[in-house]
Amino acid sequence: MFWLRVFLLGLGFMSISVVWPLYDSFVTLYYQEWIASGLVVGLLMAMDNFLGLTLQPYVGALSDQTRTRLGRRVPYLAAGAPVAALFLALIPFAREAGLWPLVGAAVGLNLAMASFRSPTVALMPDVIPPHLRSQANGIINWMGALGGALAFLMASQLYPRDPRLPFFGAAGLLVAVALVFLFGIREPAEPQGGVPEEERPQGLWAAARSLARGLVDPQARRLLLAVAFWSGAFQGTSTWFTTFATQHLGMDEGGATFSLLFFTGALLLFALPAGWLGGRIGRRPTMAMGAALMALGVAAVWLAGSAGAVADNPWPLRLALLVAGTGHSLMVVQAYPALVQLAPPGQTGAYTGLYYIVSQMGGILAPPFFGQLRDSVGWAGVFTATVVFLLFAGTTALTVRGAEALPVPAPGQTDGRGPGSAVF
Fold first, then answer.
1. pLDDT mean over 228-249
2. pTM
């Protein structure tokens, strides 16, 4: 029953992970049918990150204080996912109607997705004890990678037949997962470990002010800084990869999206080992190792592209993407459990919101920044910036203290995070 619960949680993350590869891969190209400036396209593509900086963390903190018959987190996904599915299915039609209908459909999709992502993610530490969160997050991210792989498979196989089909498939999955959450998940009355009455949720902005004023352990701020640079490197490069592959390497759209399957496939292969590795050697060294490996893979992507003839022989490029994806899996599996470990009791949703604030700040700044680099100095600048961001993120993550999993307490004892926090 315990791991079944983890599997059901993973379905929510899988549905989210299907949407964004399609959005990043194709909406970037759709905008360029109307807009020549890489900076403007990057700003439009940063919309999801802007909402991640505003609406998404607000909803995450709000879910801490939500009390309904369905629980704190589930109502947000049950309401938001069908709306997101509707706007996702409208995108290919909006593309044909013109730029502003396309922007309108993208805005609707981003608003709906932002309304349930944080509560969906925050549900994991509600039901998983601290010493198993790295492993559980490995399973959840493995399912997220499965969703990403499914998106790229739909894109490469269905898009050539009809550009609308991948969007319809992803929309159907969103609706199906919303039904699974609505009827298959029963949230606990209180988060895992309970929350003392004097430590009830304070809200997102109170948590943010505490971080800014130094009232919270500086280790959390340091970890969030690492997350910001890692996220900027990942989101900035992924936004522009399809354009890089089609315009610079001479690949077609199907081949470019299929190549990204190797990046996502690495998460499928290594998400579970990454969870085990974090529990074995620690979250900090695992994150640092992941950032270094991802930087190596990104550099190899550029070198493979510089060697030429990628359209005729894409396998060196795909091997480099596999290496980069392996490093990404080590980072993504550990970062969120590490931050939750530093959160005060009762602040899981708020700290989930903070996680998305800083990760989306990187995502807001990186796509237009990388777009401007492409316009001004070329693709070499984009890949150089990505490697620098990743090395900084890994070095910073290695200096964080207090983010490791706590030992399993003896029966009747607490886990050190406050009264009533014994692990079941």
1. 85
2. 0.67
> How do the domains of the chain map onto residue ranges?
2-185+203-398
- The pLDDT tens digits for 166-197 are 999 999 999 998 898 888 777 765 555 444 33
Helix 348-376 to helix 38-45 angle, to the nearest 10 degrees? 170
| Residue 332, C-beta contacts closer than 8 angstroms, at least 6 positions apart | 141, 267, 290
Contact 126, 348 (CB under 8 A): yes
Closest CA to 380 of 309, 325, 305: 305
Other C-beta atoms lying within 10 Å of the C-beta of residue 341:
22
Tell me the H-state helices in 33-185. 38-45, 47-53, 55-64, 74-97, 99-114, 117-127, 133-158, 165-184
pLDDT at 214: 52
State yes or no: pLDDT of 269 exceeds 60. Answer: yes
SS3 372: helix
For residue 343, report the phi and psi dihedrals to the nearest 5 degrees. Answer: -80, 140
Contact residues for 294 (Cβ-Cβ < 8 A; gap 6+)? 233, 234, 324, 325, 326, 327, 328, 331, 390
Instruction: Round to whole Å and give the CA distance between 335 and 133.
Output: 11
CA dihedral 248, 251, 254, 255 (to 10 degrees): -110
pLDDT tens per residue, range 120-178: 877 887 777 777 777 787 788 788 878 877 887 888 788 888 989 999 999 999 999 88
Nearest in space to 94 (alpha carbons), one of 77, 109, 113 = 109
Phi first, then psi: give them for residue 346, nearest 5 degrees.
80, 5
| Cβ–Cβ < 8 Å for 330, 290 | yes
Q: How confident is the model at residue 205 (pLDDT cuts 50, 70, 90)?
A: low
Ordered alpha helix ranges (H), 244-282: 253-281
Q: Which fold has domain 2-185+203-398?
A: Growth Hormone; Chain: A; (1.20.1250)
Structure tokens at 12: 């929510």
Amino acid type, 314: P
C-alpha of 117 from chain center: 9
DSSP assignment of 90-133: HHHHHHHH-HHHHHHHHHHHHHHHHTTHHHHHHHHHHHS-GGGH
